[in-house]
Design a protein that fits this description.
single chain, 342 residues, alpha/beta, Glutaredoxin, Serine Threonine Protein Phosphatase 5, Tetratricopeptide repeat, 12 helices, 6 strands, 57% helix, 10% strand, disordered N terminus
């Protein structure tokens, strides 16, 4: 009898090992599969709901906007009023906004997050969830920026929002300031899944081209860089992440050597495109436009862009932008004095 029990325990132990191995292997395989529009994503691994009624799974008839954020991510915090506005306007149409975050080593710990949420209850009322720890595949990084979905995207860049349907199928991913046209298309019945999938694939191609652009700039191959920038602006303006265009523009402000003026014109166009794509509401992109305009010598334009950035910014980012604005205004002061005496 004891031997029989031991045999049963042994079999149960082997079964448990097999299940655990299979589970871990499945996750590894999932992480190795690039994310694409129309993929079905598992429901969130929520440890605690910080705000709003709990949800246990995706539900038919609903649409989900999942926003990844952290307390140290000032662009994420600046997006919160927009997310609240989207929740207010489209709640009756089935939109559910959920902000998700998890522990990291940069101060995004549960007590700090709870304190942050408590301080914003009057302004931010959409659902907020604390997730199980997210780890990079090599276990060296921890935080919401290495959430499984982010790893499958191949990025750690926040803010990032995911739009899903009631089956958990991915419809769109990008900067939250760019999502509203997709929500409107969904609600009007004009959302085209095939087109959305194609645009997602094109956004990946744009990312590859951006890598080639950076290499050309590093090598001061200005003709090649100009050709790549024109291609990005003409072929990928409506599908690429706005951060790609702001980054392209800022790359030239830090480039070694004398950047040709026509290429700087393209940089300004790229920064303007990012600002337009985020509806003039994303402080990081407005600040990027200001930096490019200043580098080009347009201090008036830089000051105006920075002023707009300040109105939609907050925290440390806002303080830094205010300091930059003062620098632009101080640089403009001598020119104003000269005009006064002419």
């Amino acid at each position: 009898m004891c031997q029989l029990r031991a045999t049963v325990r042994h079999r149960l132990f082997l079964l448990l090992i097999a299940l655990l191995w299979g589970s871990g292997n499945s996750r590894a395989q999932t992480l190795n599969q690039p994310l694409a529009v129309r993929d079905t994503l598992p429901f969130l691994n929520v440890q605690e709901w910080l705000q709003g009624d709990p949800i246990e799974n995706w539900q038919e008839g609903q649409y989900y906007l999942i926003d990844l954020w952290a307390t140290w991510c000032t662009p994420c915090l600046a997006s919160m009023p927009l997310l609240q506005s989207l929740q207010d306007r489209y709640r009756g149409d089935g939109l559910v906004v959920i902000g998700i975050t998890s522990e990291d080593k940069w101060g995004n710990e549960l007590p700090a997050v709870k304190n942050f949420v408590d301080g914003r209850k009057n302004k931010i009322k959409y659902r907020l969830a604390w997730l199980s720890p997210s780890l990079s595949s090599d276990k060296k990084l921890q935080g919401i920026f290495v959430h499984d979905w982010m790893q499958r995207l191949g990025t750690m860049s926040l803010p990032k929002a995911f739009l899903l349907d009631g089956q958990g199928r991915l419809l769109w991913v990008g900067n939250p300031h760019s999502v509203e046209p997709r929500i409107q298309a969904l609600l009007s019945g004009n959302f085209d899944m095939a087109r959305a999938r194609l645009e997602f694939q094109q956004s990946r191609a744009a990312k590859d081209l951006r890598g080639q652009f950076d290499a050309a700039v590093a090598g001061q191959q200005w003709d090649e860089a100009s050709s790549l920038a024109r291609r990005l602006l003409s072929d990928y303006a409506e599908v690429a992440d706005p951060k790609l265009f702001t980054g392209l523009a800022l790359q030239l402000t830090k480039a070694e050597g004398e950047v040709p003026s026509p290429l700087f014109d393209l940089a300004v166009r790229a920064a303007q495109l990012a600002v337009s794509a985020t509806r003039f509401e994303a402080p990081g992109h407005l600040d990027g436009l200001a930096s490019v305009l200043a580098a080009r010598g347009d201090l008036v334009g830089a000051a105006l862009a920075e002023m707009r950035a300040i109105t939609v910014s907050e925290g440390k980012m806002k303080i830094e932008q205010q300091e930059k604005l003062q620098q632009y205004l101080q640089a403009l002061a001598p020119a104003a004095e000269e005009e006064k005496h002419e």
